[in-house]
Design goal:
With about 550 residues, the chain is an alpha+beta fold. It contains 12 helices and 25 strands. It folds into 3 domains: about 110 residues, Pleckstrin-homology domain (PH domain)/Phosphotyrosine-binding domain (PTB) (PH-domain like), CATH 2.30.29; about 120 residues, no CATH class; about 180 residues, no CATH class.
Length: about 550
């Protein structure tokens, strides 16, 4: 927003709302589903197989087929000299979610033993293509007709109203509608005309669909509100993860909807404009501070204490004991929002390097600490030389989160951890979590962190190089079974637990490492609250140990 004119009688503010990113986002968000919808609709319609008895020993059939929800008719296909119908089952290699794809097909077999497949499905459901029961029923129906003396028969399949077609079509339409609303409804330009001579405000909003102008008398304007708030992220240990923002709006006393002026993460972008409008119209400027205790200068100590206790309790759950791990069946039913293709892709790459799969496990301790949210699993693999385990895991993502990850608005956490143990009880850990894992170094654990974009081959090379160097002086611990790997994980967790317990589980420095720029004051307050809680707990324990 900028002031384009300021005289004794006029104040004009203007904000350009056009964003190439928004246009690109709309085209991606709506265009891709639209193309997919048209492609999918080309398979939906009505298929009608009509068969006539031409002679006692001759049956001719024709197939009438429509697509695009029966809006377009395809040319009729003749099938003369039909001898019989057959049900055929084939099994094809599966993809990342299925070991094999089971395909059920309807075939017309002609008198010369050639054949034609009909009633094919384009969608795969639960690793199956085609409705076995329906196909077998229609095969029986047609064969009974051929063997009888009946003159004609018709077999009809309507693919428009199946649950899958309705669900996919509805979701595509919703995505397209949202994109249309955002692209065509978002303002290209917004202007505010304050005119003292007419004592009125004229508010203009220009979109791709319309130009809207509304006028308000100065007498209906109550105040200009200048508000300070905070944006916070939900997730593990995110109570101290926020950023202050500033926004201004015009408030009416006549029941009209308030007019939003601007939002920014810089106070200097908002406060001067809010003051200028208030002074020009001759109304009050109202400041509202909606920040929580962790970010507001006027803090509420009880809120900060609650944040501190929640963070401290979480770390106690994670670092007070060995983790409970259980083997799981990794499929889309048990883990619906986890990218199984990532697991399978990395597994295939590792198998080419001589690794073998041990198991898919869930860390039940972390699942319980997260109250069942963000449930995921770890795929464990073991190197050919038995010195290194690999943990593969991905954070679960909903459909909307996946869209945001495409544009880089939310980190896409797909982790690969390589871990080895030496005979003196120390460990080597190599991962691709640089910038995402902000935890402190632990004595006895040599940690190598690389960018999430690092290739698997580079991670393996870096880990192997360091491990070879370390094993010149001390032997590596060799693992052979799943049970060996779990005990190895317990020993690694024991070292982390011992270190965290010695520090009191959570320190102000831990909070500082995971904070963002501009949160210094809030971080210091939260850190002080954590230290105060730990001190109180220590005093309580000391008091409880005293003899009566």
């Amino acid at each position: 927003m900028k002031i384009v004119k300021h005289t004794n009688n006029q104040l004009i503010l203007r904000e350009s709302g056009f964003s190439p990113f928004l246009l690109l986002w709309g085209l991606m968000f709506g265009g891709i589903p639209l193309v997919m919808l048209f492609a999918f609709a080309s398979t939906l319609g009505i298929e009608s197989l009509k068969c006539q008895r031409i002679a006692v020993d001759r049956v001719d059939c024709t197939l009438e087929k429509s697509i695009y929800f029966n809006f377009k008719q395809l040319p009729t296909q003749p099938f003369p000299l039909v001898d019989r119908a057959e049900y055929q089952y084939t099994e094809k290699p599966g993809d990342d979610d299925c070991n094999a794809v089971h395909q059920h097909e309807f075939h017309l077999v002609f008198t010369d033993e050639s054949r034609q497949r009909l009633f094919t499905d384009s969608l795969q459901t639960n690793c199956t293509i085609g409705n076995r029961g329906w196909i077998q029923k229609q095969v029986t129906k047609l064969n009974q007709f051929i063997e009888s003396e009946t003159g004609s028969i018709e077999i009809v399949r309507d693919s428009r109203l199946t649950p899958a077609s309705i669900g996919i079509s509805l979701m595509s339409v919703i995505f397209v509608a949202i994109a249309f609303r955002i692209v065509f409804g978002s303002p290209l330009r917004v202007s505010w005309y304050f005119d003292k001579s007419k004592r009125e405000l004229v508010y203009w909003k220009t979109t791709l669909l319309q130009i809207q102008g509304l006028s308000y008398p100065f007498s209906s304007i109550d105040s200009v509100t200048y508000r300070i708030g905070e944006d916070s992220d939900d997730g593990e240990d995110s109570d101290d993860d926020y950023r202050a923002f500033y926004e201004a709006e015009i408030v009416f006393n006549s029941g009209e909807k308030n007019i939003y002026l601007k939002k920014s993460y810089s106070e200097s972008d908002i406060l001067p404009i809010a003051k200028k409008v208030a002074e020009f119209v001759g109304i009050k400027l109202t400041k509202i501070d909606d920040r929580s205790s962790a970010s507001s200068p006027q803090t509420n100590s009880s809120d900060t204490r609650d944040r501190a206790k929640k963070s401290l309790d979480y770390h106690k759950e994670i670092y007070s004991k060995r983790h409970e791990c259980t083997q799981v069946i990794a499929n889309s039913q048990n883990f619906p929002n986890v990218d199984l293709r990532f697991y399978n892709r990395v597994q295939n790459q590792l198998e080419q390097q001589g690794f073998s799969k041990l198991a898919d496990i869930e860390d039940v301790t972390i699942t319980k600490a997260n109250r069942g949210q963000n449930r995921t699993f770890i795929r464990m693999m073991l190197s050919r030389d038995r010195r290194t385990t690999v943990g593969i895991y991905a954070m679960p993502t909903s459909g909307l989160i996946k869209v945001l990850q495409i544009f880089g608005l939310i980190p896409n956490v797909k982790a690969i951890d390589l871990e080895s143990e030496l005979e003196d009880g120390t460990f080597l850990v190599t991962s691709n979590l640089k910038g995402l894992d902000t935890s402190a170094e632990v004595p006895g654990i040599k940690r190598q962190q690389y960018s999430p974009k690092t290739t698997l081959d580079d991670l393996l090379a870096a880990h192997t190089k360091t491990l070879d160097r370390l094993t010149r002086q001390k032997r590596a611990v060799y693992l052979y079974t799943y049970e060996d790997a779990i005990e190895f994980q317990h020993r690694l967790q024991d070292r982390k637990n011992s270190h965290k317990q010695g520090l009191g589980y959570l320190t102000p420095e831990d909070v500082r490492r995971s904070s963002k720029p501009g949160q210094e004051a809030a971080v210091e307050e939260l850190g002080a609250a954590i230290e105060e809680l730990k001190k109180e707990e220590t005093q309580t324990e000391d008091f409880g140990d005293r003899p009566d």
